[in-house]
Amino acid sequence: MQVNPIQPSFAAAVSGIDLARPTNADVVNEIWRAIDRYSVLVFHDQNLTDQQLKDFSAQFGPLEIGRSAARGGKRRLALPEIGDISNLDIEGNVRELDDRRRLDSLGNRLWHTDASYMPVPVVLGMLHAKALPPPSPFGNGETEFADMRAAYDELSDTMKASIADLIVEHDVFWSRGQIGFTKFEPGEREQYPPSPQRLVRTHPGSKRKTLYLSAHASHVVGWPVADGRLLLLDLNTHATQPQFVYSHKWREGDLVIWDNRCTMHRGRPHDEMQPRDLRRATTLDVGSTLEEAA
Hints:
24% strand; alpha+beta; Double-stranded beta-helix; seven-stranded mixed sheet
């Protein structure tokens, strides 16, 4: 297995490994070391079934069953641990532009951290490209990643001291409301109440401080809402400057792993009239960020 940096300290391409084959503990540990160093790993030319994606990702921790799969009912994909990150309905047809599921998923085009609205958030995201639309004037559906450790490092010492102990409330309905999507099913708000998270975390693998931001981040606990939202806006603007961002241009067969504890990401537009099919697995953390020391 070879690890080649894409940028000096953020994002790396990994070659010489077939993830469809069983991996042993030594390989898993080697991948973990690369994740801790680069935050985002890109594996080209992978051909995994959903079961193989589940088996591989489960070696890195227990797997999340996402908000969509947790609703129950008929799904396009059989395994609830595999998220359907596509523009396809349960019959495999491209969704209409006013489809409720599609409108909800557009929230992923905001800079965010997966599932930060959960009391115990997630760790690794793994996204596997099965089918991609052709290039178009609408965009090519890139996924952009922001390095939140580097963004923290570039804050002033005064700012670091000021935000060190702040707690932020994260709410999935706040993030969806930002794009005007408010049509949730009965009981869904009660199923996913807001969760408090630390604004500054220490990444356990690298021991580096990192910002923990997301479109789900609604306000700073204990502050007037307006002041907290302005602070979060300033920090998001700082953290997503071009020098902190890697833009991944997808190829069929790509598998990308990222660490949600020290990155944000967002999807970019693409031709919504053409099929786009990606599958995601996500590993769960073991405790609340409130239990961590900044």
